[in-house]
Design brief:
There is one protein chain. By secondary structure, the protein is mostly helical. Helix 3 runs parallel beside helix 6, helix 6 packs antiparallel against helix 7 and helix 7 packs across helix 10. The two termini are 31 Å apart. The chain contains ten helices and no strands.
Length: 217
């Protein structure tokens, strides 16, 4: 708990925005439940919780050129971060649930889903930025940019596995062989590459723009 409080204090400004955007999303969801008497979109809360996890983990990862620094705990955190990071950008795919004949309901749900997507994306951008700052210190600008691009496309591929093949981050532990077999098979599908390239490009642009804006400030 003390570590989480320290994390909040060290990044108070950005964390306040994270909290604010998350509260706005949750309030809109509760308003929807109150008005429609439907719990249909409550899964968005769980998706947002999953988006918080990689942001917290990223603040405990230490990148160092010395191989001695890469102890088991740090390597475990890096792996865990990579597994959960796609959850931050995954929220954008929840727009598939936007389907209403009622225009007012459609507009409200669009705003609701957008609020969760913005919160999720921001968690993802800050998480990647946290690791990028360390990589940028030890490596060249080209290498740190390559890191952003690689991570962004890996996230897009991970989102494809989650949205279309219905895998979760923990399936690598609970169902590893089926996961590996499915990954191998989907690499030969055109829709896998189209989705990964499309969403990966969007995530890359968003992250590079955020890094650039942050460096200018």
């Amino acid at each position: 708990m003390n570590n989480l409080f320290s994390l909040y204090v060290l990044n108070k400004k950005q964390n306040n925005f994270l909290i604010f955007s998350s509260i706005i999303a949750l309030v809109l969801l509760l308003i929807r439940v109150k008005i429609t008497h439907s719990f249909y979109l409550l899964f968005l809360i769980w998706n947002l919780v999953l988006a918080v996890i990689p942001y917290i983990i990223s603040n405990f990862i230490k990148i160092d050129l010395s191989i001695k620094k890469y102890n088991f705990q740090n390597l475990f955190l890096i792996l865990l971060w990579l597994l959960f990071l796609p959850n931050t950008f995954y929220l954008i795919t929840d727009f598939v649930h936007l389907n209403h004949n009622n225009l007012i309901q459609f507009c409200f749900d669009f705003i609701l889903l957008s609020s969760f997507t913005i919160a999720g994306f921001y968690f993802g951008m800050l998480s990647i930025s946290t690791i990028h700052q360390q990589i940028d210190f030890f490596y060249t600008k080209k290498e740190s940019t390559l890191f952003i691009i690689t991570i962004s496309f890996l996230c897009a591929f991970g989102i494809y596995l989650g949205r279309f093949l219905r895998f979760n981050s923990w399936d690598i532990i609970t169902n590893p062989f089926f996961l590996i077999d499915s990954i191998f098979n989907c690499l030969f599908e055109n829709e896998t590459w189209l989705f990964t390239l499309g969403l990966g490009t969007l995530i890359t642009i968003v992250n590079l723009m955020y890094i650039k804006l942050k460096s200018n400030n």
